[in-house]
Amino acid sequence: MSSSEQHSPAPRTLYEKLWDAHFVAEENGEAILYIDLHMLHEVTSPQAFAGLAEHGRKIRRPDLTLAMADHCVPTTGQAKGIEAVEDELSRAQLAMLRQNSAAYGIEHYTIGDIRNGIVHVVGPEQGRTQPGMTIVCGDSHTSTHGAFGALAFGIGTSEIEHVMATQAIRQRKSGNLRVTVNGRLPPGVTAKDLALTIVSELGVDGATGHVIEYSGEAICALSMEGRMTLCNMSIEAGARAGLIAPDDVTYTYLKSRMPTDAWAAGMPRWKQFHTDPGARFDHEITLDASIIAPVVSWGINPAQSIAINARIPDPAEQDDSKLRAITERALSYMALQAGSSIAGTPIDRVFIGSCTNGRIEDLRAAATVLKGHKINPRISAIVVPGSGMVRQMAEQEGLDTIFVDSGFEWREPGCSMCAAMNNDRLTQGERCASTSNRNFENRQGPGGRTHLMSPAMAAAAAITGEITDFRTLL
Ligand SMILES: CC(C)[C@H](C(=O)O)[C@@H](O)C(=O)O
Ligand code: SF4
Fold first, then answer.
1. Nearest residue to 452 via CA among 364, 381, 353, 386
2. How far is the CA of 416 from the centre of ligand 2 (A)?
3. How far from 336 is each of 311, 312, 314, 327, 431, CA to CA, in Å?
4. Class assignment of domain 295-468?
5. Could you check whether 14-171 and 295-468 share the same CATH topology?
6. What's the 340 CA to ligand 2 centre distance in angstroms?
7. Which positions bind [4Fe-4S] cluster (predicted)?
8. 419 C-beta closer than 6 A to ligand 2
9. Which atom in ligand 1 lies closest to the alpha carbon of residue 415?
10. Which residues are annotated as a binding site?
11. In CATH, what is the architecture of 14-171?
């Protein structure tokens, strides 16, 4: 035996294993990676389909492509179908997706289909998202699927066309960042609070050029849905993707969502996808989960977030002039007072939903807070399930009744007020408690002000009419 054969292979990170397992070739300093699942939605696919047709190409693997209508669907009257959509551009985008899916033989959950919903809720729910896969979609929050130990990232329009035609993508390798979260989250503190804490710790571009792997006791203790919430927001720290190694929580989640044979066949392969002891990361950060409180964003990016019992930053106390300018701009847009407490800030609207927090556990958490309460009569509040399946499950559990009795509107699935690409939007100056992932200027409607928080916190804000630590209502 030669000495090299005696050496065990070099330890690799989960990211490196996913990369190696999908590496096809190297070309001009870039790798070509094979793609296992390509998801499409109506907003970013039309141009790619047009390009494909123009070049006379076919879809290489329609069976590995899945299309959904989510961003601009209305959240009422979906039974009427696409033709009932008021906005002309949205109607055209939805119709194009339906028409292209039929023409190319792609499975498409169209508006009103019980399986339809936000692409990042539906992929996992339908058992399509699996460990060890590469998954792409023309959408930045594709990072959500990394919760299963899949390498999942958003791509641009020209890349969508490329994946359609070849089932592969050109990629440069990212750096590897590990976020270890030790200890346990206190009761009622959720993956959303953890995500906002990590993003504010890293900053909006702190993970740029990197893939984040989340590990540690607090991560293992998260449900699959919590893991999705966390990986979803990786992109808000600039990361290319977020990853969590698959474990029994993952396998159990998939068992009821996949054909038994495919599940059993997947298991031995899935189990390889974890970071080897001794594997090297480019950067590491460590957090203690036990000291995290519910978190609320106060500013105009998700990193501008603080614990519910903390005070809004004062630019006068910030030495860095760039940071000071950003804080000043945020305070002015958000119409908030430097140094005052975030708790007690009056709000006008509440949105519970999105690919971050529109799953069944999120709706349960909000309903638990709302049960037996009426929302403040000044507040207009909607709950938008992440998919038709989530909506149905919630109705079977009677959650819809709790929401409606408290004064919420019970809507039909879609992205809704997360990005205001349909009719659900804030008006100038309105302030919203929102379970979504982005609080950028004008995100939820021109001049709208967004405070990101967990579903339980959004429910509490609806009841009191102001930003509130939900634990005081229990
Ligand atoms: C419309 C789409 C391209 C966009 C994204 O990529 O993220 C949207 O989903 C968002 O959340 O802003
Ligand atoms: S719910 Fe929001 S963040 Fe998620 S895909 Fe839709 S618009 Fe993007």
1. 353
2. 8
3. 11, 8, 11, 11, 11
4. alpha beta
5. yes
6. 31
7. 355, 415, 418
8. yes
9. 9
10. 355, 415, 418
11. 2-Layer Sandwich (3.30)
ipTM for this prediction: 0.98
From the CA of 437, give the closest atom in ligand 1: 11
Q: Which residue lies with its CA nearest to atom 12 of ligand 1? A: 419
Decide: 431 in ligand 1 pocket, CB within 6 A.
no
Q: Is the CB of 154 under 6 A from ligand 1?
A: yes
* DSSP, residue by residue, 101-149: HHHHT-EEE-TT-TT-B-HHHHHHHTT---TT-EEEESSGGGGGGGGGT
Distance CA 152, CA 114 (A): 25
Structure tokens at 114: 């019980």
Structure-block tokens of residue 252: 């159990």
In single-letter form, the type of residue at position 36 comes to D
d(CA 189, CA 295): 9
Half-sphere exposure (Cβ direction) of 395: Cα atoms closer than 13 Å: 12
Please report, for the chain, the start and end positions of each structural domain, with discontinuous segments joined by +: 14-171, 295-468
Q: Which of 355, 432, 450 to mutate to test the pocket of ligand 2 (most atoms within 8 A of CB)?
A: 355
Task: From 140, 143, 418, give the residue whose CB has the most ligand 1 atoms within 8 Å, as the site to mutate.
Answer: 140
